[in-house]
Amino acid sequence: MKLMMNNGCIKPPQIIILIFLAVLLGLAYFLKMDLAGLFNESLIKLVMNGVLVLSLIPMLNAGAGMNFGLPVGITGGLIGMCIAVNFRLAGWPGFFMSLLLSVAICGILGWIYGLILNRVKGREEIAGTFIGLSLIPLMNYFWTLAPFQNRQMLYPIGGQGLRPKITLEPYFYNILDNFSLVKLGPLEIPLGLLGFYGLICLGLYLFFRTKAGRAAMATGENEAFARLSGIDIAGARLLAIILSTVIAGIGICVYSQSYGFIQLYDAPLAMYFPAISAVLIGGSNGRRAFIFQAALGAYLLQTIYLLTVPIANEILVPEITEILRTLITYSIILYALLYRERQRGSGHEN
Amino acid sequence: MENILEIKELSKAYHGVPALIDIDLSVKAGEIHGIVGANGSGKSTLMNILFGNPIVRETGGYQGEILYRGRRIHPKSCGEAIRLGMGMAHQEFALLPDLTIAENIKLGRERTWKFTDRLFGPKYSFIDRKRNAAGAAQVLHQLGLDVDVGIKVINLATNTKQFVELAREIDRRDLQLLLLDEPTAVLSKRDGLKLIEVLMGMSQAGLGIIFISHRLEEVEHICDRVTVLRDGRVVSRYNKGEISISQLARDMIGHRVNKAIAPARDLNTRPVISFRQFSVDMPGEELKGLDLTVFEGEILGLTSLSGHGKLALGYGLMGLYPAAGEVIYKHQRIDQMDARANIRKGIYVLPDDRQGLGILPEHSLADNIIFTGNQVKNLFAKNMVRPFGFLDQKKADLHVGQLVDELEIKCASIKQKVRELSGGNQQKVCMARALTVDPKLLFVAEPTRGIDISAKEKILKLLIDLNRTKQTTIIIASSELDELKRVCDRIAVLVEGKLFKILAPDSPEVEFGLALAGEQGN
Amino acid sequence: MKINAQDYKFFNIEIVVPIVFLLLSFGAWQFSGLSGAFVLNQVIIRFIRDGILVLSLVIPVVAGMGLNFAVIVGAMCTQAALLFVINYQVAGVAGILLVIFLSIIFSLLAGLAIGYVLNRVKGKEMIVTIIIGFLANSIYQLVFLVGFGTFIPVINEEIILSRGIGVRNAVDLSMYRNTIDKLWLFKIGEIEFPLFMILVVLLFAGMIYYLLNTRFGQEIKAVGSSHEKAEIAGINVDLIRIKALILSTVLAALGQLVFLQNIGMFDVYTAHMNADVISCAALLAGGASIKSAKIRHALIGVFLFHTLFIVSPQAGQNLFHNAALGEYFRSFVAYGTIAFALIVNIKHEDKRLVVSPPL
What we know:
By secondary structure, chain A is mainly alpha-helical. Chain A is built from 14 helices and 4 strands. The longest helix of chain A is centred in the C-terminal third of the chain and has 31 residues, at 319-349. By secondary structure, chain B is an alpha/beta fold. Chain B has helices spanning 43-50, 54-58, 78-83, 101-106, 114-120, 129-142, 158-170, 189-204, 216-222, 245-253, 312-317, 339-345, 354-358, 365-377, 393-407, 423-437, 453-470, 481-487, 509-516, and strands at 3-14, 17-28, 32-37, 63-68, 71-72, 86-89, 177-181, 208-212, 225-230, 233-239, 271-280, 287-295, 299-303, 323-329, 332-333, 347-350, 441-445, 473-477, 490-495, 498-503.
């Protein structure tokens, strides 16, 4: 962990974000908002979005770039949950069945996605963007035509197929959020949720300690070196891409149980830019990311999101929060892209 | 005759390493001025400065004066040099692959419609493609090449590209000084002669030419003056009539008194690996049908001018570039040039390009040293399911610690990032990785490039120790001839991707010089 | 020396992709039950609306920068110019001229900035233009949804939301509606040919064709073929790339102007959305790739792509009794075409390079 910390987190984007956060906190204090409540919510938001952010790490570290094709993994997770809900599995069985199915489906999707990305080595980001974008309308067909039976999932009379927002209230709504919830005065610490998040972090950490994980890491850092050392480049990348996709599937399950709804159709489109910018805010250089950075970035970004909503409601123009969010998100990604290429450029001159 | 170009006390250093030192050189109108030198003699740096290559300015510019037709110039870009009336035929060709032959030859000087010329000026005037094609075909015809000028350059063979490259320059009316970088290297003798004829005709018409070539015979034949560069300095200059091939060869290599580190031996061993018609398609460094046998326990030096294939041998064997031909290793044919399989068989390659291929810069020293051994030979692995096995950190650290002491790697700790180490220590880390893999046959490319003198000695000594104590067969590909002479049992000289000659390390300099230039000595 | 046969292989993307689009459009048209005249009229209108935008993509592709998704920045420049002019209530011809003038100025500056940024990310231009497009959209929203009525004084109250801050979602352009759309209108049976506007689009096509066949155009092609080689051939690569991007952005701005005046009113916050994806997909449908694009690809592509776009919702309605399925189909075609082009092209590129040479 020490090693990760002194990897220079303080760069212009981090400074801006920290200043922004400080201003927001100050505002929140003056507006006499419930700071303890906000803190409680920030923990939930961290995990809710944090798993999706974690899912970017394997691909980044294997040299497959920022995963702009995150909708692929999200889609897998959504299918998994829909199947579980279709069979009216509630509570823990429902949640675990969702996870299990998600992992299986994402494994297959990730394998296909990985095979495609291996063909477009070096341009994964732009290819991933459009693979994700074209998967969405394809999946819209699925949501519309697949033979789901559970009435609660389907459009009420007059529509065809699944509804865009399926409530999880009777199934596994907040099942992780409320698991081992510890109350300390006004503070509520969702130990179960944090534990689940920690488990995934640990799993990722251990993966990068294994032989396969180290091979993937080396591939990302210096592909030619890895090749000369007898590493199966395509295999190492494929493994990382599958892993990324699987974690993304788990991520959307965690997200949905917190949020309370399964969001279908175009919803996955709104998720990948914030996730990518989160890992960048955490201090990743866009070529390599540590678990710590993903967690820190997710926490910072989500806390900002959390604070901007009530504050902006006090101001006259409510849209400003959404605009500022997107502004931050895209600026950070653009900055990372520019900064990364410049670094690479100067590296070549040596 | 007036001097077109006059260079006075030109010096240039890259990152503190001098590449050119106090060069004086002049070229008269109508003169063909030859420049001869081995690798690293500063030829290409000189060309880069003259032709305004941006890399010169990016690395801190140069000292000294360049006078062009009596005026002091400071070319900052290739475009500026071209506007001054200079032209250059590059060794790697400045041809745009997706443009046709005609488009390439006429680039920047296209003929345009008169009407739109008047309307919008020449830059935004409509191109008359027919006339351009006819013009381009005519120039190529002068060079003795008749080819459809509508073909894209990407589809051409190398020797045709060379003609197109020259045709582009010959076609220019404003040309006053032509820089030619190895223009005949990819041509057959006959094509080369044809080209030389054209060049001599042009120089008689008043064009100044700088002619870089390793074909000493040609240099002797056509140059009015020859300058020999070595280690960034002018070592000698001859006028026409005084030029002798063997003198040029001797000047190129120079004479150094070097004590051999390793005493000479008589090795009477079996072949360990033999290459038959081995070709590697490594861009800019192709091997084209190498026949070479390496004997067990020897240290074989492999040298050539740059671009003649010495680096490609190891990379080809590891499957980094497409390879063809037959390789027999320990009586067995190697069918697939696969890095993993070959490392298992006991072959290992240490690359010349440390930053690009040799290290994981962001990983720790320890990770770098054990990486290949752990991945391929499963060393230091805990007993677990194979691909997901963990590392036995204690065992690995112990091993790394020993190697760090043994190789005297200077580092804060074994967890330090390799990026932070000096070049010499990075090379030692590479050596340590090779030692960990424990190969029977080790390829090392340019082991001492870019590292300081004491580290150089240490690396050379390590290679000899490895050879003497473990009987590891070592092939060193290097352009540092004096180092090869100190450590090798035999030195193979490659020319144009083929084996030209095998020399004993104590052969006289002139023989090496002639062999590198592809001249059969007497 | 017979090596040019390679360009005429059996499986040639340049021919196969348009044919696939032709077959798809034909099939969807059959199921849609729409009359040929209706479809043709619609396609002609789309050709006029979208033609210049698609053409604006050609130059960056030729310059080796791939698909310029930042054309939506050009589109936003025009919309910004329109909103400012409407706000200051400059009516009539003077207003139109001012809009043209301002949109060219805005897009010129935007193109300059984007070109400068793209010179720092050579080889990754496409993903960066996508992000630039999104970022510009955020800034655009900030200016018009928040800036108007706070920092920017409101003169024309009609375009402002009732709360006094921010521009309305839809702004009427009737004060500039003129009849150039109907100029030289020819009718052949049920089919209407607004000849003047078709000629305008073709004029732009001719201009780009002309430009690509000048010395300047040769320089653009050279840069597109290889930066390094172009640099040593004496071309100022960075400058050419900036010029190419400025041209593209200005053309996009003018294209959006034609688009908006044709529609006659505009959705302030959504009119430019998807302009990039649809234009790019149309260009690719015509047989272009991310490495090479010609004028004819743009012109053919607009026709093919928009035919499919017009008929697919109705075909979806008739086939599945669900128009949404047709909608999904057309967004899949738009995104899928680009994804396909990227995957196929990058693979080809890879074959050519084999292994990146060490330094």
